[in-house]
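Pinned message: reference record for Subtilisin-like protease SBT2.4
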Amino acid sequence: MTGRANVMPPLCFTLLLVSVVFTSFAEERAIYIVLMEGDPVALYGDGRRLDVNSEVFKAHAKRLVDSHDQLLQSALETGSYSKLYSFKHILNGFAVHTTPSQAQKLKEAPRVKLVERDRGAKLMTTYTPQFLGLPQGVWTQEGGDDHNAGEGIVIGFVDTGINPTHPSFAYDPLNPFTSNISHFLGACKTGPRFPASSCNGKIVSAKFFSAGAQAVATLNSTVDFLSPFDAVGHGSHVASIAAGNAGVPVVVNGFYYGRASGMAPRARIAIYKAVYPTVGTLTDVVSAIDQAVLDGVDILTLSVGPDEPPEDTATFLSTFDIAMLFARRAGIFVVQAAGNQGPAPSSVVSYSPWAVGVASSSTDRTYPGSVLLGNGTKIEGVGLSGPTFGYGLLLHKLVLAKDVLKASGSFPRTPPYVEECQYPEALDPNVVQGSVVICTFSEGFYNRTSTITAIINTAKVLGFMGFVLVANPNYGDFIAEPIPFGVSGIMVPNVTNVQVILQYYEQETCKEEKGFATRFAAKAAIGEGRVASFMGQAPVVSRLSSRGPDFINSSRIPCDVLKPDILAPGHQIWAAWSPISALEPTLTGYNFALLSGTSMATPHVAGIAALIKQYNPSWTPSMITSAISTTATKYDGDGEFIMAEGSDIGSSYPSTPFDFGAGFVSPSRAMDPGLVLSSGYEDYISFLCSLPEINPATTRNATGELCNNTLDHPANLNLPSVTLSALKGSQIVRRTFTNVGSKPETYLCSALSPNGTIVDLCPTWFRIAPQGSQELHIQVKVTQAMDGFTFGEIVLTGSLNHIVRIPLSVFPVSTSNT
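Predicted structure (tokens):
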């Protein structure tokens, strides 16, 4: 049996989403997002970007808001609702706090296209520039070093805000920005802990969205600041990974861990705070996306989002996904966390082909810790702490918490008191002072009521020399991630190792007949746990990273789109933090945190996209997506096939595209991919219209577009991957490539056929001129029905050393077309 507890990275946890606070007519109120007919401002007129200060813009925006108010007044009972937002930039609609019966009236009202219940929003929770080869590769192409990487690009972050005083976001007057960002129209909103000076040139815009949060919860003024300030830390962490300043010293508890740099350290940062410590709502997130598109960000980073598929509509047609579609239509590269529900199949929360879904992997950096026993045995563990006093020369008394309880006391005889070291009043101070104390990962940790923070507090109050948090053999192994400890400490999550410790301890401890310990002769010392090792196999797909296949509705019917799209570092990432650390007391007071999750992988890709956009300013989002995908690698640093962590702790298996998408991101190769596959807004509409599970009227209601054009097959959307979710007989799929190189090039085409199929390509080779295009026909024929997806790839090998890879994912259902 395995368990997860508060020793995991804090932002892998689910925010408590409060969806009900008022009642009306015995009904519980909730937030509903309503989309209406008619073009939003961004699509009004000839579709060109409007000046937000123009009279045309203001007049149309006012007409939309007035129409929203009129609909509410005419359709709903007075006093039964509160309008939270009017969406008018990329969506025409509004968010309303009301009851289910009133929401039903909205569904039946004229000109209403879609009514969707707010599902809440969740956070999907350095060394990585070196691991990705940026200093020697991409950065050198952008001016010789990190001083120009990302210059002129604005990355938007919809998240928990930002800590504006952090050095990762400081402006250096000795190294001023040289590129103007006249295309960006953002501004700064001030508020608690966020004065006007917070927007300093590095942070170019900061806004917050709280109407949804305030409607469904009573916000805590001590942490739920109505300003762009980040009281959680997550938003600061994500922003610094993508665009944090280069070479910022990482110091925690007085120990220097190295220097942190963002992927695109010269990119500008635009902040859209939409998630609060108390609550996160999809309404606030959608409103933030709407504003980011209006402002004109180049890259939109979403390490937040709904944690489950929509209830009543297709995954592609939820309000959240439609908002991302219109952001993409506006020319914005949208990158989204794949989710932290792995390794279960079909656990991705990134569904749509117009957003890049990012999976999480490890790097080769680990922080090994150890505890040395008196008999010379050294046990491995996890913990970012210094050694016990005199390590290497001195051993200290080793005691088990449940053997050193106070002889008399009124405390409950429950695991948190007896064996988990949660309460100082339960332990005998005369015995534990100066000792290494064994605390046990028991019931309280599995119930998420016990914490590492409490152990550290107990250790400080009672003067432990150190602590060892061990797995409980009755529960099994637990998952441990390194967290900075203010005292010497280590976690030993493996039961086999724990049994070695406990066997030694029992041999050296004298107990009377009733089991009370009378003499402690066991000794131990905790080693240095803060020094990194760079010997691990990497990358490996993280256990928590959500997996494909992608699916089209809550019934999880697979669809012909590959998810996740790409794999990037997301395990044990150092980045900026907020000292308030409202959701994780263990990190209170720290300016940096070491976290894991697809939240951390996502900004890696956002920063890399910014570098590509800087180097190739005319490229569209789909071209950038293609470049990242087709140049990814399936192999780790040792040249072996990338592995993925399984459901059992310590288990792994060879990855498939449903674990890593196209593979592990390769920034240097993505700058010069040779060929790209391009698709635009009209192509996405044609894709939606070709899906048999979606009625054309539903597509029109969600997007406002008629199904005048459809694809022969949904798999013909020009993606840098091919997925066939239910192949019968044979199917011809087409892909069109564009040469983005400066010279003509000849490509040889080859295919590795998925099991149960034969793949034929036409043509088998072609020569393509700069900016020329070439269509490739891919015929996939079933030779044997299989009981699941099988995988292969198409490889185009160019005469100028470009290699273009297209992953194939096929479920061969039948050899017959019927």
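Pinned by admin. Summary line: The chain has four domains: 12-117, 122-365+542-675, 367-526, 721-814.
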